[in-house]
Amino acid sequence: MTAQLLATLKLRGARVAARKPVQSYAPDDINTDAARLAGASGEDVADICPAHRWYPLALAPPMAAHALGRGPVWMSEIISEVRWPADVDVGFVETAGGVRSPLACDGDSLELLRRLEVDQLLLVADAELGTINSVRLTLAAVGPIPTVVYLNRFDPNNELHELNRRWLIEQDKLTVITNVHALVVAIEDTAKPPGRHHSAARTPAPDCRAR
């Protein structure tokens, strides 16, 4: 999702950047999240995720680091390594897992977002059964951070998908988007001055693998 947004925004003239502060992945996965983000944004992959923050084991990053016999992952170190180009219009921070998934030994994805003072959270949720609960639990943790909900794999002809969308909008008063074009337009409309950034995160909804 983040790579697609970056590529589309870039084609439309925006100066984009992405950061994946830490990533863990299956050892045989040669197309990592950072690599996909680099391909979309045109940045060097090491600027997106420093090489020493790559953990080739499909566990939460601090757990992967421990299992691989590498040093502990500390939040303050991750924060200090996030640097932005001076001329960026829209920047994305992609987390690892849902907002309460461990990102470091002393903090989770939510801690990262708060300390980076992101302007907006993009919550990618599944459109299927269970998404209302997952979205509500995530937003309860997020608190006052402005959030846009994107229903992934939304099918307008699927009655359940449409009912979930309407409930989140009408009952929970959320901004809910269901197609990439509308999401790109919304991001362009709310883009802040250069140097500010959005965040892309995922809720642990059914069939929605956190990354």
UniProtKB/TrEMBL annotation:
UniProt keywords, alphabetically: Biotin biosynthesis
Cross-referenced InterPro entries: DTB_synth_BioD (IPR004472), P-loop_NTPase (IPR027417)
UniProt keyword Disulfide bond, yes or no: no
Pfam families for the chain: AAA_26
Protein name as catalogued: Dethiobiotin synthase
Protein source organism: Steroidobacter gossypii
